Input
Amino acid sequence: MTQAQKQRLLRHLQQLISMPTTPNSPDVVTDCLAYIQQFALEHGWHCKSIDGQSLIVSAKPGKKFTYMLQAHLDVVPGDSAQFRLVKQQGRFYGRGTYDMKFAAACYLELMATLNKHTSDVCFAFTTDEETGGHGSAKLVQLGYLADVVVLPDGGQDWHMERAAKGGWAVQLTIHGTPAHGSRPWEGKNPVETLLKLLPKIVKLNQNKAGKTTVVVSMLHAGEATNQVPATARATLDCRFVDLKAYAKLRKKVELLASKAQATLETTFFVEPLINDLHGRYHAQFAESVSAITKLPKLTGVQSLGASDARFYAAAGMPVILCRPPGGGAHSDSEWINQKGFFQFYQVLERFLTQQVE
Output
């Protein structure tokens, strides 16, 4: 890799990180998509906007490709300091460096270097992975297909994702009887019932990477300080390794909720994902990683969170989830390894050009 390539990659990453593409900043999201589209058009690529929320970049119009390189541009909120790329001790820090604008930066450089006349590649950029992944679901629904999807939103330290936990988000609601805060005996406070229920729910959390986890993630009750609330709500974020564990957990939650006269509403459900690491494209990608990084044989890892891979896998597309060393996603110290960032571009270049040319 030349120094000029490194500088271009760094500039792209700096520009992408500087854009606070959070769910509450639609104008910034639009600007980010425009930045990518302008760059792609300048380098002779065809662009197709999907509802102004997603962008497909390809050598020519169409919906079927050999390779789809996908990245989501949205990030979780953070303070202003998070949206500035900082280099420190061999790492790049900033919101989205690891999750997952590093990949988008690499894709931009590939647009500048790949022979678009022979490359059967499309780049897919979405902007709502952190809030449900409807953009990826829409791409599949519209018929966009690839023999393989590269999605660097899973795996760890170059090890590819072999499985990902499923997820179940559920809202518990308890109804009470409102009353004036000075006359609580005239009402029925649902908060008190919820506070008795939650410790029983928390006991279902096995609190280990390979086990079922249950997190009380949101609480809400009351509209005024001097009123007994009419309702109390809690949202649970549950993760499980297989559907058997999910069924067991759900049965327990439903029983506890029933006894507390609480209603349940599922707001999010994702089945566990299994990847075949012995498939043709996974094996070729692993070879590219080993050739560039000089690491010994890589093994598969289980991801603890969900990704947009579920939509592509459900449509029969193999999905490669692999990324360089990094961490701190959604935290104030999100980072990606500097060397690994540059190597990831080389891995992609080798993987694509070995197959295309």
Summary: The first helix runs from residue 3 to 17.
